[in-house]
Amino acid sequence: MRLTDFHGEEKISNLPRRLSNEDQVRPGTPGLPGDLTVYVPWGNLAIFYRDFTYSDELFRLGRLEPGAAEVIAELADGTTVTIDTIA
């Protein structure tokens, strides 16, 4: 996915398809460095590298490994990344 900086706090990217959270808990979380979230109104991925205030419109998917938020912050706009999951 291709990342773009957004407001100096997060990198965002469009997802290949919109995620459904209909069966999940209601969205709402602060954006903390390393958080992987979906911004529900737009349906895009947001990866935070700085603190962000609580938002009812964020749905937390998970967290990056320690230290990864600093790496994400330094990526140039348009950088393509692959995100793998681990259990």
Written description of the protein model:
This protein has 87 residues and is mainly β. The protein has one domain (4-74). The chain contains one helix and seven strands. It has one helix at residues 68-74, and strands at 4-6, 10-13, 29-31, 35-39, 44-48, 52-55, 58-63. The strands form two sheets. Strands 1-2-5-4-7 form a five-stranded antiparallel sheet. The longest helix has 7 residues, at 68-74. The chain is globular, with a radius of gyration of 12 Å. 17% of the residues are buried.
Evaluate the radius of gyration: 12 Å
Strand pairing plus helix content: what structural class?
mainly beta
Q: Please tell me what the overall shape is.
A: globular
Estimate percent helicity: under 10%
Largest sheet: 5 strands, antiparallel
Low-confidence stretches: none
The quaternary state of the protein chains shown equals: single chain
Count of distinct strands: 7
Average predicted confidence as pLDDT: 89
Distance between the termini: 21 Å
- Into how many domains do the coordinates divide? 1
Order of helices and strands: EEEEEEEH
Give the percentage of residues in beta strands.
Answer: 25-35%
Count of DSSP-assigned helices: 1
What's the arrangement of strands in the largest beta sheet? Answer: 1-2-5-4-7
